[in-house]
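Weekly modeling sync, notes
Attendees: S.R. (lead), two postdocs, one rotation student

Agenda item 3: backlog of single-chain predictions. S.R. asked that every request posted to the team notebook include the full sequence so nobody has to chase files. The rotation student volunteered to paste the first one in as an example of the format we agreed on. Action items at the bottom.

Example entry:
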Amino acid sequence: MTALFALATSLLWGLADFGGGLLTRRMPALTVVVASQLIAVAVLGTLVIATGAWSEAGPQLWYAVAAGAVGPAAMLCFYKALALGPMGVVAPLGSVGVLVPVSIGLLLGERPGLLQYGGIAVAIVGIVLAGGPELRGAPVQRQAIVMTLVAAFGFGAVLALIAEASTTLTGLFLALFVQRVTNVVVGGATLYVSVRRGAPALPQEGGIRAVTAALPALAFVGLADVAANGTYSIAAQIGPVTVAAVLANLYPVVTALAARGVLKEKLRTVQAAGAGIALVGTVLLASG
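Predicted structure, as returned to the notebook:
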């Protein structure tokens, strides 16, 4: 079951990142982050009230607060990097953050089997190769890579924190709600400061109407990201974090394939090979 929930996480995150990257090409990244998370807050707030999840409140929610504070910064960097593109290169590099929860799991005493160790190594190599990173080229390309690596560390920290934020299903609803409220507070404050400094909050073309028209897409991005956090938390609770984190971080392959199918971005040979290697690592992890 760990593998199933973790792979569901990779699918949801991959599609959310693809949608977020597309939206950021049409409107400011901070607006995408705040608007999508506001929708998620509304949905999660309804779930918390309906399930009586408030009764699960406890000290562990500080993990959710920390995850919520780190998340907007990571998403902002990542969406800006995706906007600089190409997505098929940026997205896989974002998964380097898997090293954070894997390292924490090992430090806490998790000891996967030999086959799973092999799967972790193979999958991480495949994920990195799937990026086909272009470390030479125009300044824009270097900027995209730096921003992606910063985002990757943030994503890894969020994975480690959210896995500790709850122990029950209703507690998970509350933890995700607290995380998203913190997302909105931190992201909204950053957006306010950005606007005060002269940056636009709305798209240059269409203004508020463009944001309103994009609400379905923003809702998908926000809710898919929330669902991915939820499935990852479950995967990390019922199985080794080292395994759950690696499988969940296959999401860049999903983003790259979506970019290939929708935007017709061509995958380089090394990217295609990396996707295949990552798949082999997945099989080893699941079978171990």
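Discussion: group reviewed the output briefly. The chain has one domain: 2-287.
Action items: rotation student to repeat for the remaining queue; S.R. to check formatting next week.
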